[in-house]
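Researcher: Structure prediction, please.
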Amino acid sequence: MSKKYIIALGVILIIAMLVLSPNICISAAKEGLLLWFNKILPSLLPFIILINILSQLNVMRGIGKISSPLTQKLWKLPGVSLFAFIMGFVAGYPMGAKVIRELLDSESLSHKEAQKLLCFSNNCGPLFIVGTIGTLMLNSPAIGYFLLLVHILSAIVLSFIFSFYKSDSLSHPRKSNNTQNNSIFTFSYIFNEAVRNGMDTVVYIGGYIIFFSVVASIIKSSSIVISIIDFCLIRTISLSTSLGFLTGILELSNGASMLCDPSKISLDLLAVVSFLISFGGICVYFQTSYVLGNCGFSLIPYVISKVMQGILSFILSFLCYPLFALYTLKTILPFEIKWLLILLGTVILFVYTVNILNYIYIKKPHRSLKNKYTYNY
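Model: Predicted structure follows.
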């Protein structure tokens, strides 16, 4: 059976669930809409507008000249990559990808450099980790800061791993189409275009969040899915944890809300939540894909990098928790050297994985993911 028919079958099943369980699906759509309206829209829209303005003013080029010696040494990338890396943390998903797209359009990055930078610069923001997960879901801002620290460390480690990813490519940066902006350089024009582009992007992101909230709700309420998970479960994993993890793979906020029970906080649970935060979920992947548009490079290395970052976050949670307990809970916990050894082994394995990606995406010609899976309507 081809991928096209598998996708069609999945769509038909979702439509059937919408008809059979309209109340559940409508409720999930409302929750997704409120999540977008109350959290995503006010936190993300200002950043998108400001980034669009900076891009039109070519300010990022000036920032790149200052930071170029550092980024060339650390990542073998142009100086503007530091701006994308920082903004990916400050604004959260999918702002890192948005900045990279702007840098690609302005010819500040080549396609291979953009592909490399995307692998470690599209991250979850502190507002969601500390505010939503730590404060609202777990009733503990301190745990939120712990999860944020683990997330930042995982991205930094991943950036060093992907410094081995070769960004020299025969493909050249795409010629900028913004010739109109060079002739009309008024602030009112630049601001209007920034707001228009920002609203388009945020509205599309809202559509993804609402859709995947409905899909996550269908999975949570499906007796067939629950029976399959219950049948496949290892006895040490609870059904609620498995459902929360599966939901988080689809959409981060719904999965985190299922897992984060303030009365049942444990290190294992925090490690799983850390994995989901760094992985981002399939919903974030499609948001990233939309923001990048027809970027001209494959997104498969990005998907692999998010799995890597999730695994690194999982390991770092166990490695860093004794320090967190010492400084916040005033509890001395034994430092387990095995997690340090596991981390080192994982880093070495991931470096070899990056070298394999080099062989696939540098030495061999390939088509972009966008072109490969685009259907004609």
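Model: Confidence is low (pLDDT under 50) at residues 169-183, 365-377.
Researcher: Thanks, that helps.
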